[in-house]
Amino acid sequence: MPLSKTFTPDFILSMKTPALLLALAATAALSAADPIKLGEYASLTGKEAGFGQTSHQGVVLAIEEINAAGGVLGRKLELTTEDNQTKPGESATVVKKLISRDKVVALIGEVSSGRSLEAAPIAQQAKIPMVAPAATNPKVTQTGNYIFRVCFIDPFQGTVMAKFAKQDLKVKRVAVLSSVSNAYSLGLAKFFKETFTAGGGEIVTEKNLAEGDKDFRAQLTAVKAAGVDAVYVPCYYTEAALIVRQARDLGLTMPFFGGDGWEDEQLLKIGGEAMNGCYYSTHFSAENTDPVVAAFTAKYKARWNNESPGAFSALGYDAVYVIAAAIKRAGTTDGPALRDALAATKDFPGISGTTTIDKDRNASKSATIIALKDGKAKFFKTVSP
Question: Which one of 129, 141, 254, 291 has the minimum C-beta count within 10 Å?
């Protein structure tokens, strides 16, 4: 009969001292061999499934590698993944399950800032560390001291693209289209506008949209009438692609550019040739010739049917390794000790760059600029903090 059934708590307490010590030793050995449970919540289905699927594949690859190398503290990692279906409120529901039912010691998620903000208060209250792969809104880690991220944040990303607009695109008059129902979009628009205007640029017009909208001709007609040099669209890939397609149909030929919310193969599938001449900021490019990136890209393609990794693949992968390294340093999976070890992360060599967690539990990282040309996403440049 398995030890877990033989040495029940009542049976152990009924034993005399020598037998009790033996039973406790056997139970401790069993516990030490139990897997370390990690929980992941992601948008595996629904409107933004591209985000969750690519991040999940990076997470799985990292866990498989770590387990093949012997695990952490002599224990294998066990992943439980919940699909939030890209639905508002669902992230909170599934994270409660991961904590209360599955007893995970750490959480990985989410790519979306909005869905991360739904789950973060629950993780904070339960004292379960959460590491967001790509949630860039500053409010995510402001939730509490158990919430971390392995990506740069929107003030940096917005600043990068404002400088890119001025220095690389050499534009002075810009329109901004942002989603009023998306914390990520509003935050990124704010930081872009502040830096661009401080540098002498002009925001000629601002137009709002909502996630799920499909017709943007009214906003684009106003943009056309304003006579701008370029258009900044800090939205997710579906809206961004539709906006650019409709803009080209209306005769708008200027560059459109955005943030890491554009990062998905669906951007080019939806937008097609209309996306040529556009740009976006992100965290990683498989075209980067760094040997570490090249090795990761080869492993990823071998695991996932020759599919190239995206930025969220790299960040999901890095999130797992950062957690594993923190568990090893802490020597335990206890929440407070693991939290402290995560907070002490410094110069961790990842696929998406070197990660150092600052006092606000954010990662200081470089940004990658992607140019869309000839129907493909091309590495353009790297911008350091």
Answer: 291
Q: Between the CA of residue 47 and those of 85, 87, 92, 123, 185, what are the distances in Å?
A: 8, 9, 18, 25, 16
The pTM of this model reads 0.87
DSSP label of 35: P
| Nearest-5° Cα angle at 100, 96 to 102 | 100
Q: Which amino acid is at 304?
A: W
Q: pLDDT for 303-347, tens place per residue?
A: 999 999 999 999 999 999 999 999 999 999 999 999 999 999 999
The C-alpha atoms of residue 329 and residue 10 are separated, in whole angstroms, by: 35
Predicted confidence band of residue 32 (pLDDT cuts 50, 70, 90): low
In this structure, the number of other CB atoms found within 10 A of the CB of residue 156 comes to 21
Closest CA to 282 of 355, 369, 350, 363: 369
Q: Which of 243, 241, 224, 276 is nearest to 177 (CA)?
A: 243
Q: Do 34-152+289-365 and 155-282 show the same overall fold? A: yes
* Closest to 366 in 3D by CA, of 285, 289, 291: 285
Under the phi-then-psi rule, with left for phi > 0, alpha for psi from -120 to 50, and beta for the rest, what region is 106? Answer: beta
Sheet with 130-132: strands ordered across: 77-83, 36-42, 106-108, 130-132, 147-149
* Helices of type H across 127-203: 139-142, 154-167, 183-198
Which residues are 131's β-sheet partners? Answer: 108, 148
CATH of domain 34-152+289-365: 3.40.50.2300
Q: Which helix (H) or strand (E) holds 177?
A: strand 173-179
Inter-residue contact 314 to 329 (CB < 8 Å): no
* DSSP string of 72-115, one letter each residue: BTTB-EEEEEEE-TT-TTHHHHHHHHHHHTS--SEEE--SSHHH
CATH numeric code, 155-282: 3.40.50.2300
